[in-house]
Structure prediction request, 291 residues.
Amino acid sequence: MLAVKPHFREIQESDIDAIGDLLTRGFQHRSREYWMRGLRHQGARTVPPGAPRYGYLLENDGVPVGCLLMIYSNKTSDGETVTCCNVSSWYVDPEFRNYAALFASMTQKRREITYFNVTPAAATWPILEAQGFAPYCGGLHFSVPALLRSGRNMMVEAVTPATLSVAGLPEADLGMLKRHAQYGCLSLVCRTAEAALPFIFFSLRKRRGFIPLPAMQLGYCRSIDDYIDCAGAIGRYLLWRGKPIVIADATGAVAGLPGIYSEARGRKYYKGPHRPRLGDLADTELAIYGM
Prediction:
């Protein structure tokens, strides 16, 4: 029997090194630098008032024995600004696993918050559903958008952390693109006859056991329709940079974007008052920590 009952509290700046060690121990396929880089990004970003910056830890006798990273942000849903939380990496040392479910439930109790999980392992799907989560994304759509004839007259330009302005792009969108470029994402603006449209793409990294196809994940667009309209121009831009394949979240084959839909991976879950929008993975772990 454990001599001291563990308790949970918010992760503080002074806990970061210990959290990096804990996550490296729990996710042995990830390097410590991977976690520390992402934690530094979390430490530098703006969070909604009253939200924890990093998430929560489970502590026993002053030593972290578990943690749950939580990435809070404000998003727009049907014209309304809402607070969302990406429930990210979760690990508890084996001898404290009997506290893990309570730990998770106690950190996700605010009814006005929409909680979502964008990287759930298949083995955790039944657990999430038992906790009240529901799928909002069923799989992934793979396409080679450079083959589309659309967008011949559109211009595509990259946004970097040093970009000062983009004509026709609101400051909030520019700030988002610059922030994600700082994370290492590819931030683009596609200029149509009517507007300057923001897009973010994530690079796929080497995974255990195989090397991924030369592909990019669609990380942000204002709407899937915007992406379909610009897909040809963006696809040709990416093709010249050795990335012919684009992967997008979907619930089925995407009309107007020839390709292959698969439910083998890519399912995503949420619970709360606002269903997350497909095509918006901005300010999630996939951007801040990398894929």
In short: The chain is about 25% helix and 30% strand. The mean pLDDT is 91. The two ends are 39 Å apart (CA to CA).
